[in-house]
Specification:
Largest sheet: 6 strands, parallel
CATH class of the largest domain: Alpha Beta
CATH architecture of the largest domain: 3-Layer(aba) Sandwich
Radius of gyration: 23 Å
Order of helices and strands: HHHEHEHEHEEEHEHEHEE
Distance between the termini: 77 Å
Shape: globular
Helix content: 25-40%
CATH superfamily of the largest domain: 5'-nuclease
Length: 232
């Protein structure tokens, strides 16, 4: 047998190939981590049950950065295709201003909630923003509004834990790290969707994969924002 084409030559070629491949992944580690969800889903598998938990206040930061609103119908379609979904259930968490606390009508906001619920089948968890009076002897009294939905989201995540295979979180809040660890200990896959300027390092590295919504190539965006400063 010719030495150049014998078994030893074959092993040498394999060794060189593996060494080159490892070098490539070492150099590209950050990119590989960022796109880990793509690697996992390159080959279609058995369809999965996926539950999505959306922190609306966190997503707003990404929408401001993009200058456009999410099109939730397109986003739902994107998630179904990306994760080969058998069943997709979406929870949407938000707090809204009390009547009479804004100079503009809140009718469109409530119509939007109705659209998510009846039009797209979302489960909408909402509550009125809590108004807290802050007393300051120098600057005078002011009002601070709070509408944290972390507890409501956590209750749903745990209550339905036996219903889904994969949990998708649209949030960047590190307070959810303990919850994510809990899910992973129960052999659930957990992926985080947020944006680079609004994601904690703990959350980014503590899940099965992180996806920057601003880098998604598929069309998931809707109308342009008229005024980025109008947060609520």
């Amino acid at each position: 047998m010719n030495k150049k084409t014998g078994p030893k030559a074959g092993f040498l070629i394999l060794k060189i190939f593996l060494k080159s491949s490892l070098s490539f992944f070492e150099v590209s580690f950050d990119r590989v981590y960022k796109d880990i969800y793509i690697l996992e889903n390159m080959t279609p598998e058995i369809s999965k049950i996926v539950y999505v938990f959306i922190d609306a206040s966190n997503l707003w930061q990404a929408q401001k950065a993009k200058g456009r609103m999410f099109d939730y119908e397109k986003l739902k379609k994107y998630l179904k295709e990306r994760f080969f979904v058998l069943e997709l259930k979406v929870f949407y968490y938000t707090a809204y201003p009390a009547e009479g606390t804004r100079t503009f009508s809140l009718d469109n906001k409530h119509k939007f909630f109705t659209y998510l619920k009846k039009g797209l089948g979302f489960i909408v968890r909402k509550k009125e923003l809590k108004r807290i009076i802050i007393h300051d002897t120098v600057l005078g009294d002011s009002i601070q509004e709070k509408g944290n939905m972390d507890v409501e989201m956590t209750i749903d995540v745990i209550h339905y834990v036996n219903k889904y295979d994969i949990a998708l979180f649209f949030t960047g809040d590190s307070d959810f790290l303990a919850l994510i660890n809990y899910l992973r200990n129960k052999n659930k896959k957990v992926y985080i969707f947020s944006s680079k300027n609004n994601i904690s390092q703990e959350l980014r590295t503590g899940s099965d994969g992180y996806i920057d919504v601003l880098s998604i190539q598929e069309d998931i965006w809707g109308r342009r924002l008229k005024n980025k400063k109008n947060v609520i």
